[in-house]
Amino acid sequence: MKREKTEYDKFKTIFDSTIDAMFIYDMDGNFIEVNRTACERLGYTYEEFLSMKLSKIYAPEFYNALLLKIDELKKRGNTLFETVMISKDGRKIPMEVNSQIINFGGKKTILSIARDITERKLAEESLWQSFKTLKKSLESIITIMNKIMGTRDPYTALHQKRVAKLATAIAEEMNLPEEQLEGTRLSASIHDIGKIYLPAEILSKPSKLNHLELNLIQSHPWVGYDILKSIEFPWPIAEIVLQHHERMDGSGYPQGLEGDDILVEARILGVADVVEAMTSHRPYRPAHSIETALNEIDKNKGILYDTKIVDICIHLFTENVFNFEGNNNLSNN
Q1: pTM for this prediction
Q2: Fewer CB within 10 Å: N-end or C-end of the chain?
């Protein structure tokens, strides 16, 4: 009996000396042991803890997630998760909890070690706010670039706006992650920024371009890339702009990339660019119908254009999900 007491005292000394809150509870959530840090952090006495259940210290909105984690723990033997605990005086404390199943007092129990991550969460929030401010500043740069483009070449500025609208709709339908969605939208809104250095006479020429003029036009992805590459965007804007005229079979320009070597955002942009360009009036031809544009991308899917992206683009129009004019009457296109 004395030896058992000594062993428990040793355990309790170590248990109480840790800087993290520690809890031992049975499979029904009844506390069996807690350390001094747990009492100090949550404001309950040792005796109060031993008369409580686990549910008492968790924020209600996190308790269902906790039950799922306990189920996972029973299957795997351990689990690590973030949650929020509630102190006796009602304070919410963000915690990182590392739990495992142990044998304690001859019974199967759960040991949870809970680390207060308040400072980490505050730092993450501060970092996130800084990131949002940076993103806003970068988006402002893109907006300014587009306005500058608009003063020199109103057609291209409108084209970019409409392409961005369609490209964003395609990206949303593909369920791309938020960052890729943003990258697609922003790169589409300035994808022809390289044309700012092209002579206005070429951009508005009513007749067919000659070989030299065509080469100048085809240089605009590189020019756009050179303008954008020194700006540290959180998205690969410069690369997307560089690749938006690449084609799946390698017949595009300027690098002759093919297939998955082309960024998915650039593949989306390539389809949206063609559809918008074909359905808009150009100095050298009238606008085509949306049906003609959709037929063009459909017959070349898997050759020039990404099959999945083409199918989604066609779906957006034929199912009246998308319209450049913001209505659902395709006959007006």
Answers
A1: 0.63
A2: N
